[in-house]
Write a structure and sequence with these properties.
Layout: E1 26-37, H1 43-46, H2 48-51, H3 55-62, E2 65-76, E3 80-84, H4 91-98, E4 106-111, E5 114-115, H5 121-131, E6 132-136, H6 147-151, H7 153-158, H8 162-175, H9 191-204, E7 209-213, H10 221-238, E8 241-246, H11 249-255, E9 258-263, E10 266-271, H12 273-278, H13 283-289, E11 317-318, H14 324-334, E12 338-342, E13 345-350, H15 352-360
Parallel strand pairs: 3-8, 3-9, 6-7, 7-8, 11-12
Antiparallel strand pairs: 1-2, 1-4, 4-5, 9-10, 12-13
Helix pairs in contact: 8-9, 9-10, 14-15
Length: 371
């Protein structure tokens, strides 16, 4: 499989202070969602036989293309939910369905318990203007407007007065690192700076959810990394709910609290970065993640064993969320086994054998717990 990714050079980092509660209320809730393009599209999800056909067979028999097939998931409040997959997997169609920029064929979508598919024109306008802001790959900046006025544009659409919207826009100029560039035109900015304007414009309207549709894929690698780190920083500071679409595994692992991996319109696995890398659901996912340095994604929980007598008080202490990469550094630096400590209590130990087992993808022999 040709994979449009690059090897990870730095450990993926999720915002530690904003990790969403697994019991948190869903912001978006999607159930049994289909989007079919073509004649009489609604017959495809209604007929299990048609719905089970692969893409080529479905086109031949019906003239239809199923871009999204029977997808269900929740986006929890405060999380970065990443949808990733190769070109044609359905990920961009899916995110556009959330606010009905593309009309779903069947299924249900709700935001904060409100049925999106039953919204009239006024409610949809309110959803798109106030509750869910979108950041696209193409910046869509107005060339005749300054940075400040581009950022304020969404507020202008909302009917906010000129003085107030420019004041609020100025706050986000600083927040995205564009100080001193307020009066430049888009043509005077680099690609990364233009994308920062697009991000600030989305943030300025104070949406409940930010929707990103491959926003950084056209940027140079170094600028792209800077923008990824900017998203991580903003999420850590604000805890805003985000849905992020990407085809890049590196980006997904770096940004996502949870990742939905799509193929041919379906979600083939949904889980944390550690679950995706450590326990691939099938050969497709396994092939997708095979080049990922496991030690940079998996945590010490995957390598630890019960503590033996005397081990719970000696050696460097690590949090349960520390990566195996961090544990290797600690063990190499001190020459001692590392303790995994949670709430002041040693919950396990990681040693050379356990760490090597994770790196090699082979379960290591574990010690026997001592009462």
């Amino acid at each position: 499989m040709n994979q449009p990714t690059t090897p990870l050079t730095n450990p993926p980092t999720n915002p530690p202070s904003k990790t969403p509660d697994t019991d948190a209320e869903a912001v978006f809730s999607v159930r049994d969602l289909w989007k079919v393009f073509g004649p009489k599209a609604d017959r495809v999800p209604a007929d299990p036989e048609l719905g089970a056909l692969d893409a080529a067979e479905l086109r031949e028999r019906t003239g239809c293309t199923a871009a999204v097939r029977d997808v269900s998931f929740d986006v929890r409040k405060g999380e970065v939910f990443v949808v990733m997959g190769l070109s044609g997997s359905g990920k961009s169609t899916l995110v556009r369905c959330l606010t009905r920029l593309i009309e779903p064929t069947s299924g249900t979508i709700s935001i904060d318990g409100e049925d999106v598919l039953s919204m009239d024109t006024g409610r949809l306008r309110e959803l798109r203007r106030h509750r869910a802001a979108m950041v696209f790959q193409h910046f869509g900046l107005l060339p005749h407007r300054t940075v400040l006025d581009n950022i304020a544009y969404g507020l202008e659409i909302q009917g906010v007065g000129r003085g107030e919207r420019r004041e609020r826009a100025a706050e986000f100029v600083a927040k995205v690192g564009l100080d001193g560039m307020e009066h430049r035109r888009p043509s005077q900015l680099s690609g990364g700076q233009q994308q920062r304007v697009g991000l600030a414009r989305a943030l300025a309207v104070d949406p409940e959810v930010l929707l990103f549709d491959e926003p950084f894929s056209a940027l140079d690698p170094l600028i792209r990394r800077d923008m990824q780190e900017e998203v991580v920083r903003l999420h850590r500071e604000e805890g805003r709910t985000m849905v992020f679409i990407t085809h890049d595994l590196n980006e997904a692992l770096k940004l996502g609290d949870r990742i939905a991996l799509m193929r041919d319109g379906r979600i083939v696995q949904l889980g944390t970065p550690e679950e995706i890398v450590g326990a691939p659901a099938d050969d497709y996912v396994r092939d997708f993640v095979r080049d990922v340095p496991r030690e940079q994604v998996l945590t010490v929980r995957s390598a630890m064993r019960p503590a033996l007598i005397g081990e719970s008080e000696a050696g460097p202490a690590l949090a349960p969320g520390a990566t195996v990469h961090e544990a290797i550094e600690a063990v190499a630096r001190t020459g001692e086994n590392a303790r995994v400590v949670e709430d002041g209590r040693c919950v396990g130990v990681v040693d050379h054998a356990g760490l090597l087992g994770v790196v090699a993808g082979v379960p290591a022999a574990t010690g026997k717990a001592v009462a």
